[in-house]
Write a structure and sequence with these properties.
There is one protein chain. By secondary structure, the chain is an all-alpha fold. The protein has one domain. The chain contains 3 helices and no strands. The longest helix has 19 residues. It starts with a helix and ends in a 9-residue tail after the last helix.
Length: 66
């Protein structure tokens, strides 16, 4: 499973999107946009989740092309 998380394009595992949505909500609550001092940290955390979700969307999840 850990390899699947690191390399979503090579995996048959579909990550539970709710887990990542919960993380996004937590980050949004912990680092509000009004907190300009921690804006960069907020951006980095959200960007890493968005990037992972985007990689998962590009995966064929083990389906062979016909």
């Amino acid at each position: 499973m850990e390899m699947a998380i690191r390399q979503p394009k090579n995996s048959n595992c579909i990550p539970n999107l709710a887990t990542y949505l919960r993380d996004i909500i937590h980050i949004d609550s912990a680092f509000p946009q009004s907190d300009t001092q921690r804006a960069n940290l907020r951006h980095e955390k959200l960007e890493s989740i968005y990037t992972f979700i985007e990689k998962c969307q590009q995966s064929n999840y083990g389906k062979s092309s016909l």
